[in-house]
Design brief:
The chain is of the alpha+beta class and 180 residues long. It has five helices and ten strands.
Length: 180
């Protein structure tokens, strides 16, 4: 196990600089740098202090299975939901994505139908239109995105996806988890 790299990855995942981690553990930025480059080895006490600040238990830090991230998600892991009344289908492409920073989904909206409304938030939303045409209503403004066009916005206002055409629309949508 590369202890230095593991500390660095955890530090970065917490959006901490070496200096910030050093301040919270009474260590210098230089020493944190040396640890991350495996030029120095921490004492058990120092390592435990670092792990406490990084919010991970020693067991979890050294557990090899926790150190491997899942990268590929097969179709059998997707979660499907259909709202026949509103005329849309949504497929969550990554299990537990609602617990992660991004939530990628595949959405199909039937002709002359709509996807649910969303309240204002700080979430960033990206969509890529695979087929059809969709109207994106953000507050009082409306935008139309066509096949092979990308959509990107911050959800400061209430928003909704609407299909006003006589063809279904298919899209990939990714939203971040940043709510007001």
């Amino acid at each position: 196990m590369d202890i230095g790299q593991r500390i660095k990855n955890l530090r970065l995942s917490k959006n901490l600089t070496q200096e910030e981690l050093g301040e919270r553990t009474d260590l210098t930025k230089g020493y944190i740098s040396q640890l991350e480059r495996n030029l120095s080895s921490p004492s058990i006490e120092t390592l435990f202090d670092i792990l406490e600040v990084l919010g991970i238990t020693p067991k979890a830090f050294f557990d090899e299975e926790d150190n491997h991230q899942k990268v590929i998600y097969g179709e059998q892991e997707h979660t499907f939901y259909e709202d026949e009344e509103k005329g849309y289908q949504v497929t969550w492409l990554v299990p537990e994505s609602n617990e992660k920073e991004m939530e990628p989904v595949f959405i199909e909206i039937a002709p002359n139908s709509y996807f649910k409304s969303f309240e204002p938030s700080l979430a960033e939303t990206f969509a890529y239109i695979l087929s059809g045409e969709v109207t994106i209503k953000i507050g009082r403004k409306e935008y139309v995105a066509k096949e092979r066009e990308a959509v990107y916005f911050t959800a400061y206002e209430a928003h909704q996806l609407i299909n006003t055409s006589d063809k279904s629309v298919k899209m990939i949508l990714v939203a971040t988890d940043s709510y007001l």
